[in-house]
Amino acid sequence: MEHHYVDALKQGDEKLIKELYGNYRNEFLFFSKKYNIAGADSLDIYQESFLAIRKHALSGKLYDVNSSFKTYLFGIGKHLIYKKLKEYSKNQSYELQVHKVDFDYEEISIDATGNLTKEQELLRHYFKQLGKSCQQMLTLSFYRGLTNEEIATLKGYESEAVVRSQKSRCLKTLKDLIKKSPQI
């Protein structure tokens, strides 16, 4: 990390600290938009991130960091964003979550009037036989393209390993259903 930034944070150089704070603020707010975080929460997260990096500077931890100031700051911010997303998901009522799931599936429904291949018809048929949690897991992963870590944060799982495990079970169930199909 840039040692002159660490020194400024450690020694309380107000001019450079204000400059650092302002340099990355708008860029961080733009970065946080892709996570659908409320604007006020994004500002709070940025402030917390900046305070955390200053605390790390005061403790002397930053002299050994190999990343840039910006990368380290955004890394802290991303961690706090995930924490906030987890809070969001915990605060939603069960009814809202069920409604949201149903809405998600309506959005991605396959147009049955189109010409689907035999494989697509089988996939659609057996996908509908999976439980809602498996449907949601596979949709978030393969249709929306979310990473295991993003799914874990969004749905409040302990870790991305839990998501990976559940996704694997869901895929295996779907494959087994298709393999047992008399239509193959």
UniProtKB/TrEMBL annotation:
Keywords attached to this entry: Sigma factor, Transcription, Transcription regulation
Regions that span the bilayer: none
Top-rank taxon: Bacteria
InterPro entries with a match to the protein in the record: RNA_pol_sigma-70-like, RNA_pol_sigma-70_dom, RNA_pol_sigma_r2, RNA_pol_sigma_r3/r4-like, WH-like_DNA-bd_sf
Family label: Belongs to the sigma-70 factor family. ECF subfamily.
Protein name: RNA polymerase sigma factor
